[in-house]
């Protein structure tokens, strides 16, 4: 069923989906989001600018944020927290800290363009050289980890850092506790080519030599950050990608509370496709295979628009049909840096601007229904690796680390420059 949209929407409509509570608030798969929290987020972003929530991690999310900040200040980044490599992985293993690397990059993408905020952003991105215990650590990871320990809340830490960097928008974690990504991978055992091996950890999944058949999270049902859920319900647009399909984008749709928020929000939903398949994680995938993987993992997901660069789409018709299967129309636009396989924030901003202007207010339900009806539910070419039922090989890449020490969002409500936030 299409999601309703349009201006003047009642923020208390969030109570209708999966509500378990009464007047005290709306339960969204274990995340209690009070109507007034949604109202506070809407009030903070009220005005002519669209309220946008961007989901992802790493360089893909940073490119999306660098583009979106040119169009709106009512911007929230929701960042995956599954990183277990590099500086983030070391702090996670040693301190039980929330992995801060992707969160740091999102803050830097939203930082003020000049003056002290720009200097702070450069410092946050600086990595220590040498071979000592600090070698390889990003300054921002250490600062954010220290702020989170000091305040007892990663959300409060991110808000404080956002003020320091003059961020145009807000950065929130997908969950206030770290998660692990667990993948079923084909082809890792030469003796049994069809066997499935369990690979655990974002770094291991992203670099696997096999073919990813599917992913899940550990724990299986982590709690979503309450502030991020409220932002999704109050948004005009939800933006997925670009970024690693299995380790940056899908985790947002596998956290029950966030999946519920995305699929029941009145916002329109947009996905930016990657410019190429990613070695290891999505090797051999066609553009439409990325959409098919989303549909397999989240059958209830509906999109409104899929943005793709023409140079990355050798066959537009199959991709348009795959998009229509999700209720979306395909928007082809040049969004890459000429001669490089990376997104150009300026070009991506123009694509976002065109999509936002064309969609207008309240167009979501009609556009999605017409797009799905206009195209046959037929796809050509491979639709991504199947989910086989075969014996499992021994687990690979299993990690053992301390449980994240930070509590889930909840409890007292504090005032921030972005509205009310729960400690």
From TrEMBL:
GO CC term, one of those recorded: cytoplasm
Subcellular location: Cytoplasm
Any Pfam family hit: CofD
SUPFAM superfamilies attached to this UniProt entry: CofD-like
InterPro entries, A to Z: CofD (IPR002882), CofD-like_dom_sf (IPR038136), Gluconeogen_factor (IPR010119)
Region: Disordered, residue numbers: 1-26, 367-423
Compositionally biased region (Low complexity): 367-382
Record keywords: Cytoplasm
NCBIfam families according to UniProt: CofD_related
Cited function: Required for morphogenesis under gluconeogenic growth conditions.
Family: Belongs to the gluconeogenesis factor family.
Name of the protein: Putative gluconeogenesis factor
Organism of this sequence: Frankia torreyi
